[in-house]
Design goal:
With 302 residues, the protein is of the alpha/beta class. It has one domain: Vaccinia Virus protein VP39 (Rossmann fold). It has 13 helices and 8 strands. An 8-stranded mixed sheet has the order 3-2-1-4-5-7-6-8, sandwiched between helices. Helix 3 packs across helix 4. The longest helix is centred in the N-terminal third of the chain and has 18 residues.
Length: 302
């Protein structure tokens, strides 16, 4: 199975790889320790606030939101922090990750978050409607994100929105990004990278492994990045309109201030709405100004 090409893996096989990955104790422990302020992603707070406030103007009531594939609950908790009366559902397939989310929710006294164990497609088959779906660093875990969003759009309320956030674009394939990633890695990771590139010099059996894919099945689109410009065109073919689309430099605070100077706006976020609801366009420029003003680093709109 591991010598198959990415194109030959099914969505179900990729889902199984994700289940196996997020069942590992080391991964679960990482998210258990994944606390503020070190891993504070300010773009969540800024983008969510702008979207929730805009939706509140249109809906005139609290937003019904779903943090899809939300794992340990980063997106769900941020939604509640931005709009405390927002009705939030957290969905993920990993029971271990949801246990981390439950502990963190209890610690932060967030007792009104509905936590559901399900994969994305199964959850979307339920007969429920929501105002906002958030995919937080999630689209790159799917082989066909457009098909996922098409099914998501069917569960949107008429004035609903979808936010994708913290997914990698194709700049992750650039030499600049590779050099930065290599420089920031620990010594063990550096050694593994050098072995992969210069195996014979290190005595590795490169012939034996020459047909093995150099990617994590669960994270393949992290390796290649998503063509986010093509993505914004593809979503229009399924009845969605990009209201906001930006590239930005994700990472530790000091890194996010440096990356724009070398052109590494390597993460992207997109805010989508149904093309049958054009009323949001009057808020577009205001939202762009709010987001650009409140983020502490440079961004690019497309």
């Amino acid at each position: 199975m591991r010598n198959k090409r990415w194109e030959d893996f099914s969505e179900e096989e990729i889902l199984e790889a994700n289940i196996a990955k997020y069942d590992q104790d080391a991964i679960v422990q990482f998210y258990e320790d994944f606390d503020e302020p070190r891993y504070s992603y300010i773009e969540y707070e800024v983008i969510f606030t702008s979207v929730l406030e805009t939706m509140r103007k249109k809906l005139g009531r609290p937003v019904r939101a779903v943090d899809m594939c939300g794992g340990a609950g980063k997106g769900a908790f941020t939604l509640k922090a931005c709009q405390p009366d927002c009705q939030v559902t957290l969905v993920d397939l990993s029971e271990k990750m949801l246990e981390v989310a439950r502990r963190k929710a209890g610690k932060n006294r967030l007792h009104d978050i509905d936590i559901v164990q399900a994969d994305a497609f199964s959850f979307l088959e339920q007969d429920n409607e929501y105002d906002l779906f958030v995919y937080s660093s999630a689209l790159h875990h799917f082989k066909d994100p457009i098909a996922l969003l098409q099914q998501t759009a069917e569960k949107l309320s008429p004035q609903g929105m979808i936010i994708s956030i913290a997914d990698p674009n194709t700049l992750t394939m650039s030499r600049r990004y590779g050099f930065l990633q290599f420089s920031a890695s620990d010594w063990e990771t550096k050694k593994q990278v050098m072995k992969n590139k210069f195996g014979r010099l290190f005595g590795a059996d490169t012939k034996q492994n020459s047909d093995m894919p150099e990617f994590d099945i669960a994270e393949y689109q992290t390796f290649t990045g998503i063509d986010d410009i093509a993505f914004t065109k593809q979503v229009q073919n399924i009845g969605l309109q990009p209201l906001i689309h930006l590239r930005y430099p994700a990472g530790e605070p000091y890194i996010t201030r440096l990356l724009p100077y070398i052109g590494l706006y390597w993460a992207f976020s997109t805010v989508l709405h149904k093309d049958t609801e054009p009323g949001y366009q009057i808020y577009q420029e205001q939202m762009k100004r709010e987001i650009a003003t409140n983020l502490p680093f440079r961004i690019k709109y497309y």
